[in-house]
Amino acid sequence: MKRTMELEGFRALDEKSLVEYIKATPYLHSKLGNKLEDLQIKEVGDGNLNFVYIVTSSSGSFVIKQALPYIRCIGESWPMTKERAYFEALALKEQGSLCPDHVPEVYHFDRAMSLIGMRYLEPPHIILRKGLIAGVEYPLLAEHMSDFMAKTLFCTSLLNNSTTKHKHSGFFCDQNF
Fold first, then answer.
1. Can you name one GO molecular function term for this protein (predicted)?
2. Average pLDDT score, the chain
């Protein structure tokens, strides 16, 4: 039996099975106005680790990111933990509460499926790495990065929190999901 089949409740999604997943997930379905007639799904992951899908319709949009239990470009011979999606979702939720202008909102998290549904930033937004490689100048980048770092690093540190609060923050407990 393959390793991925042994992971309870997990199955890698593709464009077709993602439609069924959305239909079965009320919150995601509602983000599309409960209409799937003109649904478009495009896989945009760079192929190394995760599947990333842009899901759009005339009534809404979001991004689905699914972490595989192995390195995607190598295969099951190089396993990785699915829990990385859990910690990424926790971090996004915490960072989003502290700095909502610079973090996409998390709409949905499915721990068994290692799947995060989040806000889609439509073009002209692009992945920063791609913009920098293309020579795009970002005059507010330093201001935005320093704002994000100041708010998230200080607010989650022991400089701002008691030891007890820091120990029991969202990064260490399941209360958010």
1. kinase activity
2. 89
> Which of these ranges, 2-11, 49-58, 133-142, 151-160, has the smallest mean pLDDT?
2-11
Residues 32 and 39 sit within 8 Å (Cβ to Cβ): yes
Q: Is the peptide bond before 139 cis (omega within 30 degrees of 0)?
A: no
What three-state secondary structure class fits 60? strand
The pTM of the full predicted model, rounded to 2 decimals, is: 0.85
- Answer whether residue 105 is part of any domain: yes
Which domain range does residue 14 map to?
3-125
Residue 22, in any domain of the structure? yes
Count of domains in the chain? 1
Enclosing H/E stretch for 56: strand 50-57
In a domain, 63, yes or no: yes
Residue 170 has what pLDDT?
Answer: 54
17 half-sphere exposure, CB direction, 13 A CA radius:
8
- State yes or no: pLDDT of 66 exceeds 90: yes
Is 139 inside a domain boundary?
Answer: no
Of residues 23 and 9, the one with the higher pLDDT is 23
- What whole-number distance in Å separates Cα of residue 147 and Cα of residue 99? 8
Q: Name residues whose C-beta falls within 8 Å of residue 6's C-beta, 6 or more positions apart in sequence.
A: none
